[in-house]
Design goal:
560 residues; alpha/beta; Rossmann fold; Glutamyl-tRNA Synthetase, domain 3; Ribosomal Protein L25, Chain P; 3 domains; seven-stranded mixed sheet; 14 helices; 24% strand; elongated; cytoplasm; ligase; Glutamine--tRNA ligase
């Protein structure tokens, strides 16, 4: 029974179909992106749903590009989409394109014209829209609705051959201008677009509308279950009507079913709005680490496993809701905690001079890489008389709850010694430039001495000044200050841009990071998880902050 309870409602639909006699070996799914932008976190849920069903039922899954609008589509988007799906860990059986079926779709459209079920309308789009009526008022038939079959065939061929300007004619299905479903009021099937297509070049001057191409492409590919988001629920009636015109009994009849899209807080997932962020320079590109695109998340340091876990955790539902981005951050923390090596880096440095440590001396101390590993591994970290610590880890005076470094008190340096703050050096403006400390030479971590076992409340990370590797660190925050930036009727979502979504700092890291390569992930101890950026080089190492060690955003919002 536990297995049955774990099924989502889509899986229940499939199980019911199988019980009703549908053959399991005829199950086929598809992920059908339009190549007019990069995939985002919402697409990740759809990818995981369709490919997950493929894995569950051992059924093929097609990757099909619904490339019916050459005005907005590019090969670069196709390449990015393939890269993202592969990176998430999925394999498609066939790579398909709606453009593969342009001839078949055209031939079927000719048949509809011959049956009196489609006609060429020569009105402009505004007039056609006005004639559609309202949900409570029937539409008005086009004056061209009863054109002869011969005239329709002749005009449609002329449209295909490029004889007319864009907007001169459209092909419409002849269904029902008084239908309660507005989409059934003679929907447009083809429009003229005298634009070059990224795959078919200038072969076509007409392009099918999404509703006509999508369902028929499903049918051509023999997709059994066509899963889409909830806004397509009103389209299901039209999906079925178009299938009625071409379906033959010996074939699988595709079934459209809808699930709710999951919106992510503090971001937008409309491709149109994401494109605006790119074009207006708010972000550096589609893969900017602040973007909710899969490529942006990957560059920021999110793993495929964390995104799949996120998709699995939020599940599939029939009702839309807003998912707090903190859940996505929880998934990446949980994953990186197991995988990421611990290293030391200081992002807001202040110098500590250990006055009783011999000048010119250095020693290499043993540090564990990841306490979560089954078999512990270690690396060597250099220690010397001068080190950097975080500026916020020291106060001249502090209350009893401050367990970091303060004058006259002790802390332990991670993997190293216990030090005691004795005095400070300040510049003319009163800023601390150096903290002078003494160390207990018997207190080295792991040495087994009595002093090494001594308990002190605070432990600090640090970096040896002489060995420090200078790094650029990009610290990211929410791109928007508002949980639903596009949820305000009277405001533009751009008004909610967080001006502090990116802070670039110069930090210092332990020398083991000198050999780090783009994509590698680390936990900077006490600071968070960081990833080497794609722009990083051996001479200029760049890190992106993936996420902090704990969720501080909620606390900050409560304070505000």
């Amino acid at each position: 029974m536990s297995e049955e309870r774990s099924l989502n409602f889509i899986e229940h639909i499939i199980e019911d179909d199988l019980k009703a006699g549908f053959q399991k070996n005829k199950l086929r799914f598809r992920f059908p992106p339009e190549p007019n932008g990069y995939l985002h976190i919402g697409h990740a849920s759809s990818i995981c749903l369709n490919f997950g069903l493929g894995e569950r039922y051992d059924a093929p899954v097609n990757l099909r590009f619904d490339d019916t609008n050459p005005a907005k589509e590019e090969q670069a988007y196709v390449d990015a989409i393939k890269r993202d799906v592969e990176w998430l860990g999925f394999e498609w059986e066939k790579e398909c394109y709606a453009s593969d079926y342009f001839q078949q779709l055209y031939d079927w459209a000719i048949n509809l014209i011959k049956k009196g079920k489609a006609y060429v309308d020569s009105q402009d789009s505004e007039t056609i829209a006005e004639q559609k009526g309202t949900p409570t008022k029937p539409g008005t038939p086009s004056p061209y609705r009863d054109r002869s079959i011969e005239e329709n065939l002749e005009l449609f061929e002329g449209m295909k051959n490029g004889d007319f300007k864009e907007g001169a004619h459209v092909l419409r299905a002849k269904i029902d201008m008084s239908s309660t479903n507005m989409l059934m009021r003679d929907p447009v099937m083809y429009r003229i677009l005298n634009k070059s297509h990224h795959r078919t070049g200038n072969d076509w001057h007409i392009y099918p509308m999404y509703d006509w191409a999508h369902g028929e492409s499903d049918y051509i590919e023999q997709v059994s279950h066509s899963l889409c988001t909830l806004e397509f629920l009103p389209h299901r009636e039209l999906y079925d009507w178009f299938l009625d015109q071409v379906y033959e009994e010996q074939n699988v009849r595709s079934k459209q079913r809808e699930f709710a899209r999951r919106n992510l807080s503090h971001t937008v997932v409309s491709k149109r709005k994401l494109l605006r962020l790119v074009e207006e320079g708010v972000v550096t590109g589609w893969d900017d680490p602040r973007m909710p695109t899969i490529s942006g998340l990957r560059r920021r340091g999110y793993t495929a496993e964390s995104i799949r876990k996120f998709a699995d955790t939020i599940g599939i539902a029939k009702r839309e809701n807003l998912i707090d981005v903190s859940l996505l951050e929880f998934c990446i923390r949980e994953d990186l905690n197991k995988k990421a090596n611990r290293v030391m880096a200081v992002l807001d440095p202040v110098k500590v001079v250990i006055t009783n440590y011999p000048e010119g001396q250095e020693e290499w101390l043993e540090a564990e890489n990841n306490p979560e590993e089954e078999e512990m591994t270690y690396r060597k970290v250099p220690f010397s008389r001068e080190i950097y610590i975080e500026r916020e880890d020291f106060r001249e005076e502090a209350n009893r709850k401050f367990f970091r470094l303060k004058l006259g008190k002790e802390v332990r340096l991670k993997n190293a010694y216990i030090i005691k703050a004795e005095s400070v050096v300040k510049d003319d403006e009163g800023n601390i430039t150096e903290i002078h400390c003494t160390y207990d030479e018997e207190s080295r971590s792991g040495s087994g001495t009595e002093a090494s076992m001594r308990k002190v409340k605070g432990t600090l990370h640090w970096v040896s000044v002489a060995h420090a590797e200078e790094v650029e660190v990009r610290v990211y925050d929410r791109l928007f200050n508002d949980a639903e930036p596009d949820g305000h009727d009277n405001k533009d979502f751009m008004e909610f841009i967080n001006p502090e979504s990116l802070t670039v700092v110069k930090g210092y890291a332990e020398p083991s990071l000198k050999e780090s390569k783009p994509g590698e992930q680390y936990q900077f101890q006490r600071l968070g998880y960081f990833c080497v950026d794609t722009e990083s080089s051996k001479d200029a190492i760049v890190f992106n902050k993936t996420v902090g060690l704990r969720d501080t955003w909620a606390k900050l919002q409560d304070k505000k």
